[in-house]
Amino acid sequence: TYRLYLGNTPGALSLMQEGPQTSYPLSGFNWGQTYYWKVTANDQFGAETAGPTATATVNFLNNAPESLVYVSTGGLIRTRLTSVNLDWLAPTDPDGDPVETVLLTGPAPNSLTPINLGQETSYVWESLSFNTSYYFKLKAIDPFGAQREGETKSFLLEFKNTPPPLPLATAGNGILWRHKQELFAETISWRADPDKDADPVSISVHFGSDSLRKIYEGGDASSFYVDGLNYGTTYYWQVIASDPFSVSSGPVNKLQVFLQNSPPSAPSISAGMGNINTRMTSAALSWNPALDPEGDPVIYDVWTGTSPERLRLAAQNLGTPGFSLSNLAFSVTYYWQIEAKDSFGARAFSPIASLTHTFQNSAPQAPLVQGPILR
Fold first, then answer.
1. CA-to-CA distance for 111 and 280, rounded, in angstroms?
2. Cα–Cα distance between 199 and 247 in angstroms, integer?
3. Closest by Cα among 108, 107, 106, 102 to 88
4. Mean pLDDT in runs of 10 for the chain (375 residues)?
5. Which of 82, 170, 320, 375 sees the fewest Cβ atoms within 10 Å?
6. What pLDDT does 263 receive?
7. How far is Cα 331 from Cα 208, in angstroms, rounded to an integer?
8. How far is CA 357 from CA 137, 318, 329, 332, 351, in A?
């Protein structure tokens, strides 16, 4: 049989077990305590042999949690929110112990404030400021105090904003041809695409011939009616789109407007030409009306004279195709020409016509003799 002796000191061992067993379950021990023990072999006749005194120290075995895995890695965060979600994978323990997480946060890496989160794997960090850097790191702790710290991460919170789309011209730029009376007006227009951030957009329109001045400011407009324009003048205009956070200045556009007008057709002479045998000192001049291709009203000037190279204005701004030329001398050739004008000043001339009044006179009839005829 065997006797097992056990104690805290080698000189004070107590009998703990006697029998044929060759092992002993040590329980109720204290961690880190050194125990002394020995075994004696005894036969049935009382002979005993003692083995050497041995020692046993029981130490607690515990491993720190595994390395932490961040899901939120930091960096530049463009957003309009003043909060950020921090996420990580649940830490594991090689001994299977439950693990709790401590999140340390702050505006500087050397002044982080701990937040005990238990076994949570995410945290919403609120009330943050834009254009500010923030720092955070994780610490995993098991029930026996073993812990593992993750690396310190950081992020910069930047306000997210896309400037309004550029207001590009769609009408009212370049060279335009118009058939209007001065002063006239034009509609300038531009693309008004929606703001990508759905912000309200304000429009200002700047216009001028030598320098730009603001002529409109208001809501999200896409056109403007500009009046008081002159032909041949170069105008410049620009549209600026603004949201509450940024400005987009469109290009400076150039606008030139020229008159598009065609002259009326040349009038053709219909009466008042050639040799006229008459006793009248006036002649009725008439011509076929001129036609204007744009449908403008046509008026007429009458030019007359005794030489085709030196015609003088005899009548102007006639609304009908006729004129009475008076105070004519007989046997004198008169020349005349019609000038047709539209309301924009475009003109056309008829061919030069001529007329000559010949005095109309017949010889008297032969006298009738009444009485004897002398032979």
1. 121
2. 12
3. 102
4. 94 93 90 93 93 92 94 90 96 95 96 96 96 96 95 95 95 88 84 93 96 93 92 94 96 92 95 92 95 95 96 96 95 96 94 93 79 66
5. 375
6. 95
7. 64
8. 119, 25, 7, 7, 20
Quick check: 59 and 27 in contact, CB under 8 A? no
Residues 287 and 244: their CA atoms lie apart, in Å, by 70
Torsion angle of C-alpha atoms 257, 258, 260, 263, degrees rounded to 10: 150
Tokens read off for 318 = 């006639």
Which amino acid is residue 286, in one-letter code? S
Tens of pLDDT, residues 292-329: 999 999 999 999 999 999 999 999 999 999 999 999 99
Residue 368 to residue 279: CA distance in whole angstroms: 28
Q: Cα separation of 193 and 163, whole Å?
A: 11
pTM of the full predicted structure?
0.61
- Tokens read off for 41: 């072999």
Please tell me the distance from the alpha carbon of residue 304 to that of residue 271, in angstroms, as a whole number.
15
